Amino acid sequence: MTTIGICYLILINLIAFALFGIDKRRAKMGAYRISERTLFLSAILGGSMGALAAMYLFRHKTRHLSFTAGIPAILVIQVIAAASLLAVSSGLPH
Fold first, then answer.
1. In CA terms, which of 1, 18, 73, 91 is 20 to 30 Å from 37?
2. In terms of Cα–Cα distance, which of 62, 61, 69, 67 is closest to 40?
3. How many angstroms separate the CA atoms of 11 and 72, rounded?
């Protein structure tokens, strides 16, 4: 993986983590919320580890099956995809 790719993953995971934290704070304050679509999009774009960490650290969205099943499922798919890409790029049989 390139330096740019690693930097992207770090950044998108920090963004996903922050989005979940901000949404939790807004939920407590009764303020305008971040849409569930945006939260899921941040995970799909590579921030699934940050999203999952934030869910459990902030205890946010942990009662929603779509999140408790969806975010880990996205992470598993991303790990499998990354492993497959690494295997193909290294010439290993897949």
1. 1
2. 67
3. 19
State pTM to two decimals: 0.89
Contact in structure between 13 and 47 (CB atoms under 8 Å): yes
Q: Which residues contact 14 (CB under 8 A, 6 or more apart)?
A: 47, 50
Q: Which two tokens stand for residue 49?
A: 């580890």
**Residues 42/12, Cβ–Cβ less than 8 Å:** yes
Q: What is the pLDDT of residues 30-74, one digit of tens each?
A: 999 999 999 999 999 999 999 999 999 999 999 999 999 999 999
Using CA atoms of 72, 41, 61, 75 in order, give the dihedral in degrees to the nearest 10.
Answer: 10
74-85 pLDDT, tens digit per residue, is 999 999 999 998
Residue corresponding to tokens 């193909």 = 88
What token pair was written down for 31? Answer: 């303020």
